[in-house]
Amino acid sequence: MTTLNEFSSCVAQYDPHALPVSAAQAIVRQWATPVTAVERVPLRDALGRVLAADIVSPINVPSHDNSAMDGYAFNSAALATSESTVNLTIAGKALAGHPFQGHVDTTQCVRVMTGACMPADCDTVVPQELVERSADSTSIRFAANALRAGANRRLAGEDLARGHAALRAGRIMRASDLGLLASLGIGEVNVRRRLRVAFFSTGDELRSLGEPLDPGSVYDSNRYTLFAMLRRLNMDTLDLGVVRDEPAALEAALRSAAASADVVLTSGGVSVGEADFTKQLLQTFGDVAFWSLAMRPGRPLAFGRVWSGAHPGLGLPALFFGLPGNPVAVMVTFYQIVREALLLMSGATPQPLPVLRAASRQAIRKRAGRTEYQRGVAGQDAHGQWHVTPTGSQSSGVLSSMSEANCFIVLGHDEADIGEGEHVDIMLFDGLI
């Protein structure tokens, strides 16, 4: 069995004690194996689920040539035979769902509404606002140069042709996708099963909500941010609560999590403190690729595998992410390292998070040799140019800075101090957090 450590050591820039973020992302990506189980669900239950197979259109959309305007359908040959003004006799009317069945010659037209089938022999629609009707409403006239042949006609299959892929496997279903499939008459779809993620916090100082705070204790916020971030990604979650800093309790929690989940997330317990036992335990029944990243916040982050049995390879396996204990670091490492892995394991095809360039409104101190994710407030000036201001204290324990911010200021591994007015990368929270 190839261990994560053996594989990771072949990655460029590999340093298990200070791994560059890009190298860590590459390692995690290689081990994020998609779940294989497939479920068939009603269309209404497919929102946020990952398609397990391509959806091929069984019909043309639209199913027939139709009018894109309220107006008059006619044969474009009339444009070529008219010098300046086109004169046409109204042969009838076509409404959506009520097509005109008769023949239309080049001297005639049919009154059509938007979405109505194009009458036989007609290929062009003149909008009603461009025509002049006769006093008895039996004919119309309009300027011959007012439009071109084929104008305002939607062709059958123009939106989606029969036999073509409507949606690809790996797509996370959105509201518009449900509408698209409904337009094809599809009421059920095959989706990957939801990824199961177990998580818990470690620390003797942590208290759950509703418990009294003893001197030196704090309420556990990490499980709630983890729950929210996982729920937003449509994961099945298993909250194992707060686990005390005791080797036996931690071992039991890790083995139980591995037995019941695809991924195990912990917060706290992976630094170098005297009571941080997670690292010791994983060396017994786990397999770890790296323990520390060259990033701020989030330096103490472990990634590997853990088994439900007594030794690596025994029992059921799960990917393991040991996140830092500080609240902001938990969120940063989740979005920069964990998020993509969870999507890949769900069978999704993740899209890179969008990054914008913005002018910094103040100088930012930065040490080269690590990637930093500072919290910022971004906006646009009167000319539409983006600017950003850090949210004061960038301590990884100040969770309020995440609530105040609307973006990450992403400072690359090799970047140093940023001067006021210089441009930086920003990653907007909208759609992310």
From TrEMBL:
GO biological processes: Mo-molybdopterin cofactor biosynthetic process
Enzyme Commission number, as recorded: 2.10.1.1
Single GO term (MF): molybdopterin molybdotransferase activity
Cofactor(s) the record lists: Mg(2+)
Keyword Flavoprotein: no
Domain named MoaB/Mog: residues: 198-344
Catalytic activity: adenylyl-molybdopterin + molybdate = Mo-molybdopterin + AMP + H(+)
Enzyme class label: transferase
InterPro entries to which the protein is assigned, alphabetical: MoaB/Mog-like_dom_sf (IPR036425), MoaB/Mog_dom (IPR001453), MoCF_biosynth_CS (IPR008284), MoeA-like (IPR038987), MoeA_C_domain_IV (IPR005111), MoeA_C_domain_IV_sf (IPR036688), MoeA_linker/N (IPR005110), MoeA_linker/N_sf (IPR036135)
Pathway involvement of the protein, from the record: Cofactor biosynthesis; molybdopterin biosynthesis
Domain of life: Bacteria
SUPFAM superfamilies reported in the protein's UniProt record: MoeA C-terminal domain-like, MoeA N-terminal region -like, Molybdenum cofactor biosynthesis proteins
Family: Belongs to the MoeA family.
Name of this protein: Molybdopterin molybdenumtransferase
